[in-house]
Amino acid sequence: MEWLNVTAESGLWGLLAASFLSATVLPGGSEALLWGFLKLHPGEYGPALALATLGNTAGGMTSWWCGYALPRWRKLENLPHKDKLERWGSPALLLAWTPVVGDALCLAAGWLRLHWLPCCLFMALGKFARYWLVAQSAFPN
């Protein structure tokens, strides 16, 4: 079990990287990593929560940027649910944390040219709420 002896500093860097990668189309389990890290280092609650949220939001914004960089092809104008995202706008990115759908939302928001700042803020808020719930579960009463 010596391999579990992760320093807080290296664990935080790993958590940041894993949460970033988990927000892209790459599969990942940053929630489990956050939970395990907090079990090993409960005193790092604030930094771990902040870095997981930061990394996952940065990954989501990378997907947003990829969507923004895509050309506006005519055939993509009829994508399913595109009209809903246009109607709801950036607040729909509160759901950017959801598996599979969240990646598509981030990509579509960029492709629709939704302004980056509200997208980033709503994305961060949704991702923070998810990580906060995971972090709370690491410390049952």
TrEMBL record:
The lineage of its organism: Bacteria, Pseudomonadati, Pseudomonadota, Betaproteobacteria, Rhodocyclales. Keywords: Membrane, Transmembrane, Transmembrane helix. It comes from Dechloromonas hankyongensis. It comes from the Bacteria. The chain crosses the membrane at residues 12-37, 49-71, 92-112. This is DedA family protein.
